[in-house]
């Protein structure tokens, strides 16, 4: 060996480093092309699929979930138009929660766009053409348009001076003036008393004219809103069974108002009670093809499936014996949830920091992921092994769907417009999650480093041949 090395010239070392640099460069280019086209590393895929079984490991890739039929996909597409902004069913209280955050941190938790959408909602829900007949309602109609919170609160007090039974004035004070949930609940109880009285009057005369029908519709919206917020107050104050009863009664009394997604409030409260059988019953009713999906529906279904196997689940054991039927069902449910909203796992696994959820969310977007994880992270932590199972399986969805903007297995392709809407809904200090943004695999970094290193050696050998020969021999 010594004789052989002593006969090698600088030209040989230069040719060797140039050749190795060229070959590693070709490997790097091929890896990059394969990743761009198929979304996976070729070297990693070959090692997992072909080399791992040869050295004793079992292939642990669950079968892809069965896709819906074409008709089901059409129904989903009709019911979930791209980038439609929805009212957050679990939005916080402005005075008691959002304002408190601003006092402590000095940061605005709500964007102007989000608050403007809420102002439009309030005008649609709480006003109608007959407001001119009641002076207090006329004042409140102007109050919902005010941009300054203090001006809105002042207008609410003016409405109460004109009519002590103005339900919408109590609603505004509960949302914005009350600094604690206890104070908000007191205002809402006053609003409920006034709202029920006005609602009964509207019921008696709603058939007299179209104006009276519009008034009944408005008074119904006020009553439902107040009852829902009272249930949320009870939930926040620890009276969970009372909150569940109020939500169930509200859903029975107004079954046609399912678009308000009260069932998502109910799911969260039942999970807090650990009433998993009741959660499954609610999912059986609302996790339907004809209804719009949500992260709460998809991830709660995955959580229940994971609960059945997560305590005993081990990746090493599963790779040796394969997945059981229950584990396959759990993995498929997680893949389904991740395909619907791919932003949620990083929040549940605490790989990304949470902020207060906005008042409006974009389904399948980062805003919906923040809103879901903010309330449901504790429920995943409570079930032993559920987060471990999620961590082991959620990235498999991205390998199954290399081009989520162009195709999907269970849902229509991921909308391409979510980033813009999420940036308007979420505060500026929050780093918006963007999908699909594939992270480069290890072997692309490795081959790029190898190519760069060998090219550098070739350059040094060309510039300092004698020194590099001595270094190589040493």
UniProtKB/TrEMBL annotation:
Its main location: membrane. The keyword Secreted does not apply. Keywords: Membrane, Transmembrane, Transmembrane helix. One of its GO terms (cellular component) is membrane. It comes from the Eukaryota. It is found in: Membrane. The chain crosses the membrane at residues 12-33. Pfam families: ST7. It is a multi-pass membrane protein. The keyword Transmembrane helix applies. Belongs to the ST7 family. This is Suppressor of tumorigenicity 7 protein-like.
């Amino acid at each position: 060996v010594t004789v052989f090395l002593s006969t090698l010239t600088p030209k040989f070392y230069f040719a060797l480093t140039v050749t190795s640099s060229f070959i590693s460069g070709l490997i790097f280019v091929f890896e990059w092309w394969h990743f761009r086209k198929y979304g996976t590393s070729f070297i990693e895929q070959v090692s997992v699929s072909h080399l791992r079984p040869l050295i004793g490991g079992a292939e642990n890739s669950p079968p892809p979930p069965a896709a819906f039929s074409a008709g089901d996909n059409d129904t989903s597409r009709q019911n979930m138009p791209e980038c439609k902004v929805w009212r957050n069913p679990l939005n916080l209280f402005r005075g008691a929660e959002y304002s408190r955050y601003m006092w402590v941190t000095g940061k605005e938790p709500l964007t102007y766009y989000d608050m403007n959408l809420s102002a439009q909602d309030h005008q649609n829900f709480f006003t109608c053409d007959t407001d001119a007949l009641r002076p207090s309602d006329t004042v409140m109609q102007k109050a919902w348009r005010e941009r300054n919170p203090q001006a809105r609160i002042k207008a609410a007090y003016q409405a109460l001076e004109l009519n002590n039974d103005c339900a919408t004035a109590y609603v505004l004070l509960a949302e914005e003036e009350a600094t604690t949930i206890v104070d908000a609940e007191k205002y809402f109880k006053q609003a409920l008393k006034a709202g029920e009285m006005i609602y009964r009057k509207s019921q008696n005369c709603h058939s007299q004219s179209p104006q009276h029908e519009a008034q009944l519709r408005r008074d119904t919206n006020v009553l439902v809103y107040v009852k829902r917020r009272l249930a949320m107050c009870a939930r926040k104050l620890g009276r969970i069974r009372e909150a569940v009863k109020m939500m169930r009664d509200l859903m029975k009394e107004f079954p046609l108002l399912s678009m308000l997604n009260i069932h998502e409030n109910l799911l969260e409260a039942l999970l807090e009670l650990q009433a998993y059988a009741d959660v499954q019953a609610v999912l059986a009713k609302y996790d339907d093809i004809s209804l719009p999906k949500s992260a709460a529906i998809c991830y709660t279904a995955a959580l229940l499936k994971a609960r059945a196997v997560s305590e005993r689940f081990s990746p090493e054991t599963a790779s040796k014996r394969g997945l059981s039927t229950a584990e396959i069902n759990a993995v498929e449910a997680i893949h389904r949830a991740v395909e619907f909203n791919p932003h949620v796992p990083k929040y549940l696994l605490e790989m990304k920091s949470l902020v207060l959820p906005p008042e409006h969310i974009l389904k399948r977007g980062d805003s919906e992921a923040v809103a879901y994880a903010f309330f449901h992270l504790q429920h995943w932590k409570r079930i032993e092994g559920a987060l471990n199972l999620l961590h082991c399986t959620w990235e498999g969805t991205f390998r199954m769907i290399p081009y989520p903007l162009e195709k999907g297995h269970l849902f229509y392709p991921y909308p391409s417009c979510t980033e813009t809407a999420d940036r308007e809904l979420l505060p500026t200090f929050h780093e918006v999650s963007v999908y699909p943004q594939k992270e480069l695999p290890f072997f692309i970094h490795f081959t790029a480093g190898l190519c760069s290193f060998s090219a550098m050696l070739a350059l040094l050998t060309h510039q300092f041949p004698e020194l590099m020969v001595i270094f190589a021999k040493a």
